Amino acid sequence: MIKCLIIDDEPLAIQLLADYVQKSKDLELVHTFSNPIEALHFLAENEVDLLFLDIQMPELTGIQLMKITKGKYQVILTTAYDQYALDSYDFDVIDYLMKPISLDRFMLAVEKAKKRIQTETPVVVVKETANTKDYIFVKSGYKTLKINLSDILHLESLGDYVAIHTENEKILTLENMSHFEDILPSEDFLRVHRSHIIALSKINFIERNRIVIQEKYIPISASYQAAFWERITG
User: Fold this and answer.
1) pLDDT single digits (tens) 211-225
2) Inter-CA distances, 32 with 60, 62, 85, 183, Å
3) In the beta sheet, which residues pair with residue 230?
4) Is the per-residue pLDDT at 182 higher than 90?
5) For residue 52, which of 25, 70, 34 has the smallest C-alpha distance?
6) What is d(CA 94, CA 74) in angstroms, rounded to the nearest whole number?
7) Helices (H), 32-188
8) For residue 208, is it left (φ>0), alpha (ψ between -120 and 50) or beta?
């Protein structure tokens, strides 16, 4: 199922799109928002594949929202104005739907989204989990630093950077989270959110769906909860 979000300042437009989503066997509606700022806060803590995004909204336009999220999400734009079409292609959006949106045109856009998401979904490769090294090397600025695995508390995605929080310092690197998910031993480290990888041995306690490591509260997003609790209780 493709997890989607509807962001539109018109209640009737939200209602229509939500009804269309219910008619699609490939879509799961996670949430709807009439306020794009609230949608950004939600996206920071939750996993979503596809945005149905209105362009012209108060406070924040759809184009501005795409700039802020830096291409993290697949987008189908919805608008009553065609003058934004050229701008939308700079962001490689899946489709551009003109209001009023018909069901058949909506379904065509969903098929495009389905094909793109399936094409871009990475193949999961089973790797050897045995790791004889107890350290990693990380490029930070002009230096390549050696970091002992036992010193790592957690890793956090910060825009274009990843912050590695250790016992003594915070190290910034331009490597992405997927890179660290690949090189860190899976028996000791676990991804619990799009933006967070934790060292299991450093957990102080768990409060509802949040992990606490040295007074830092780290959310466990819905798509990672099952794997996390299986690891903790298994």
Assistant:
1) 999 999 999 998 888
2) 16, 14, 23, 37
3) none
4) no
5) 34
6) 7
7) 36-45, 62-69, 85-89, 103-120, 177-183
8) left
**What is d(CA 155, CA 170) in angstroms, rounded to the nearest whole number?**
9
81 DSSP β-pair partners = none
Residue 199 backbone phi and psi in degrees, to 5: -90, 115
What is the separation of C-alpha 230 from the centre of its chain, rounded to a whole number of angstroms? 22
DSSP for 123-177, written as a single string: PP---------SEEEEEETTEEEEEEGGGEEEEEEETTEEEEEESS-EEEES--H
How far apart are alpha carbons 56 and 63 in whole angstroms?
Answer: 8
Which candidate, 178, 183, 190, 185, places its Cα nearest to that of 221?
Answer: 190
Q: What is the pTM of this model?
A: 0.53
For 42, the token pair is 């939600």
Would you state the structure tokens that stand for residue 151, as one six-digit string? 């010193």
Nearest CA among 212, 188, 192, 191 for reference residue 201 = 188
What are 107-124's pLDDT values in tens digits? 999 999 999 888 765 444
**φ/ψ (deg, to 5) at 190:** -145, 135
Residue reference for tokens 């004889």: 132
Do 17 and 101 touch, CB atoms closer than 8 A?
yes
Amino acid at 110: V
